[in-house]
Amino acid sequence: MIAFYPQIKQFHIVIALLSGALFALRGGFALAGARWPRAWPVKWLSYAIDTSLLTAAMMLLTILPWAMFANGWLLAKILLIVAYVVLGVLAMRPHRSGRARALYYASALLAFATIYGIARAHHPLGWLARWLA
User: By the 8 A CB rule, do 102 and 33 touch?
Assistant: First the structure.
């Protein structure tokens, strides 16, 4: 399976960016009062993208040597993914106040950006690793 590592990694990156872009688009329009972000076809598209993302992540996890994750960047990323999902779900719930949903939405986007930074840097501090480590 190591022979397919570059393709799986590239797919994972593209689908992760697609997942974040779809969430940003859906969340922004949902906050503006649009109804289509909560429509079933859009939800199912989101589920399909996220399932593909998780599948690619699990494949990469089985391919890479465990020593690569020794500095804790993967654990930090996984914990932030859980926070991102929870914040995203809270942001998309229509029965919350607009202010609360906006706060959850902004927090989810910040979590996504931090996850991306951690993934790029392969360091738990993400973007900050350059200056603090």
Answer: no
State the Cα–Cα distance between residues 115 and 118, nearest whole angstrom: 5
Structure tokens at 101: 């949903």
Q: Which residues, in sequence order, are CB contacts of 17 under 8 Å at separation 6+?
A: none
Q: What is the pLDDT of residues 73-124, one digit of tens each?
A: 999 999 999 999 999 999 999 888 999 999 999 999 999 999 999 999 999 9
**For residues 31 and 105, is the Cβ–Cβ distance under 8 A?**
yes
Nearest by Cα to 52 from 89, 19, 85, 7: 19
Q: 3-44: per-residue pLDDT in tens?
A: 999 999 999 999 999 999 999 999 999 999 999 999 999 999
- Side chain identity at 127, as an amino acid letter? W
Q: Give me the DSSP letters along the chain.
A: -GGGHHHHHHHHHHHHHHHHHHHHHHHHHHHTT-SGGGSHHHHHHHHHHHHHHHHHHHHHHHHS-GGGGTTSHHHHHHHHHHHHHHHHHHHH-TTS-HHHHHHHHHHHHHHHHHHHHHHHHTSTTGGGHHHH-
